[in-house]
Specification:
Length: 187
């Protein structure tokens, strides 16, 4: 019996750990959606219906309009992670990346990978650290919040999933620091 417990404990340690994934973002969105006033919820629901990827976001959504709107908001929270591997989008920071054609409803086709985090650099052995250059989570989250009411409806519709997603990312411990050591001078 003792051997069986030991083997079970070892196997448990070997499982991959998901620090923050789609579920984490959807939980944040679920909480946010339930905290919206009825008036704000109507506006958010309308914005989500106009999102250029609404059909993708609501692929398995319920038919009931209220449940569908709720589903769209919650699932859209993970959309910024989904486009990181979507061939319609590109990463301008990569040398081998080429701009992709602008699709209807999208203000841009960039993946914006640096928006997802802000690494506070730390070094335990005196290794010089690098400061993360903008754009990053700490520049984009406040920008999105301040601009949401003043940008075009198309831009606001595109920005809403980013806003919900980045709020979740801001609470992700693994999106908050980068350790520099002599053995890892690039962090």
């Amino acid at each position: 019996m003792r051997l069986l417990r030991f083997v079970a404990a070892i196997l448990t340690l070997a499982l991959p750990v998901m620090a923050w994934n789609y579920s984490g973002h959807r939980i944040v969105a679920e909480i946010a959606y339930h905290r919206l006033t009825p008036q704000a919820r109507l506006r958010v629901d309308e914005m989500m219906r106009r999102h250029p990827d609404f059909e993708m976001i609501t692929h398995d959504a319920p038919a009931d309009p209220d449940a569908r709107a709720h589903y769209a908001f919650v699932w859209a929270a993970s959309w910024p992670d989904q486009i990181l591997s979507d061939s319609r989008f590109y990463d301008p920071a990569r040398a081998d990346s080429q701009p992709t054609p602008l699709l209807p409803g999208f203000p841009d086709m960039q993946r914006h990978p640096t928006w997802h985090y802000y690494d506070i650099p730390i070094s335990g052995d005196g290794t010089p650290v690098l400061q993360q250059q903008p754009p990053h989570l700490m520049t984009e989250l406040p920008r999105l919040l301040s601009e949401l009411a003043t940008v075009s409806p198309m831009q606001a519709t595109y920005d809403l999933p980013w806003l919900v997603h980045l709020v979740g990312d801001s609470h992700q411990p693994l999106h908050a620091t980068s350790r520099y050591l002599k053995s890892q001078p690039k962090g």
